[in-house]
Amino acid sequence: MYSDITFYWLGGSMLVLGLSVVCIYLALTLNQARAPSTGSVQKEKILQTSQKWWGRSKQQHQSQLSDMVVTMRQAGYISSRQQIMCLFKIAFVWMSLAMVVFGQLVITTPTFGDTFLYVTLLFAAGFWLTLRWLKAQARKRAKKIDEEMLVSVHLMAILWQVGLSLESLLRAYYNEAKDLTPEVNKEIALILARIDAGQSRETVFNDVATISLSVGFQDLLTMMSQAGDTGGGLRSSFQSLAKILQERKRTDLQEKVTKMSGKISVTMMAFMFPALFIVLGGPAALALIAAFGG
């Protein structure tokens, strides 16, 4: 009986959830068709209010939210607007799942205390899994930045040889390399925005280098910061950094080849050697068994 009720409840919950999503989508579509300016203004007001709340929360609970904020920043959600949209999407997914699980527990669990405990554990697991997912996205993005760094260094070296200043170099690179190195351009956009806001270049370079997980990008920003402090040239520094990045790329390829050869060896030992032993030693083993048996 409980299994039938549970099945119907899950089916009804998923149906209601699907209808809700469809209704929300249709309502948004109709509102945009009838009054696109009003809808965009309301959406902008909601986003601005959320950004203000998120900014106050980061200031008031800096120690508790520091890990989450830094991880979102490393994962590519740089601005407050992007962080708010990411949190909305994550909250929608987990709230939908929590509604289904809560309905299931209300039917199958006899006491409300157990239901509350399970839902609390679900939210705790959701927070932990969200952090793990964001950290995985941050590591994946760091790998993409490392892959883009060699091209970035060569392009910046060419722009520097043209005679551009450091800020002009960054602006020209941001305008010309959006499609070529998208992840590096996100970091360059943040650097330019903070410099335009009045912060010193050295402070911005050091802060961004501290947060970034890409070793190559850290080296680039450290080099630019030192050049800003000492006023030295960057031509030889770009060449040295390009050589270092090439060596790192060669080392990474060698490590991948070594790991791949190890996996191939394990696969051969696990599957091919037993088959070869059976094929080559099978007749001799059968002959010995027949001899001793006879």
Automatic annotation (TrEMBL):
- Asked whether the keyword Membrane is assigned, the reply is yes
**Entry keywords, A to Z:** Cell membrane, Membrane, Transmembrane, Transmembrane helix
Q: Which residues form the Type II secretion system protein GspF domain?
A: 154-280
Q: Please give the chief subcellular localization of this protein.
A: membrane
Query: What compartments host this protein?
Result: Cell membrane
Q: Which cellular component terms (GO) are annotated to the entry?
A: plasma membrane
List residues traversing the bilayer.
6-28, 86-109, 115-134, 269-292
What membrane topology term does the record carry?
Multi-pass membrane protein
Return the Pfam families for the record: T2SSF
What the entry lists under InterPro entries is as follows:
T2SS_GspF_dom, T2SS_GspF_sf
PANTHER family in UniProt? INTEGRAL MEMBRANE PROTEIN-RELATED (PTHR35007), PILUS ASSEMBLE PROTEIN (PTHR35007:SF2)
- Write the protein's name: Type II secretion system protein GspF domain-containing protein
